[in-house]
Amino acid sequence: MNLRFPVLSVLLLAGCGAGGKLAQSVSAASAAPAPDAFACARNQIKAVGFTQSSYDTDELRLTARKNDDTARRPDVQFRRMVDKLEIDVAPGSAGEVSRITVVARTFAELTTHRGPTEEEEKPSETVRAAAQTIVDKCGGEVTPAAADSVTPA
After folding, report:
1. Residues 39, 41, 44, 45: is their CA dihedral positive or negative?
2. 27: closest CA among 84, 96, 95, 82?
3. How far apart are CA 48 and CA 25, in angstroms?
4. How many whole angstroms separate alpha carbon 106 and alpha carbon 123?
5. Is the pTM of this model over 0.85?
6. Under a CB-based contact definition with an 8 Å cutoff, are residues 68 and 79 in contact?
7. Mean pLDDT in the chain?
8. How many CB atoms lie within 10 A of CB 38?
9. Domains of the chain (ranges, CATH numbers)
């Protein structure tokens, strides 16, 4: 009796896809022009408690992060959890004025002999809720007055 093939297939299946999705993407059409939806997203970053880390006004992209220093793990290299949002606003197609897409990610930040290292994990509830809030607030009708109140970072 040859047990090699069942054992190999179990090992192969255990290594494939065991981790699940490591990022969550949320997208919605917006009735506002792309620059107004982008300005709305920049405002909402602060409202959901994140800090803007970069932005590109030409490509209408921005990133934001939020550190969770309260998380603890039994690993001497563990430093903190980091939630990140990647926001992209694009001109719409097929009847849409614009489209906003938010990608939510969570990383475990570790301190190693090579320096800080991030290991991506499943998105936390905090970052998923923030992504959904931004899409809900900026995916519908955005008033230009609210979009103009953005202060440069």
Report:
1. negative
2. 96
3. 17
4. 5
5. no
6. no
7. 81
8. 29
9. 19-144 (3.30.310)
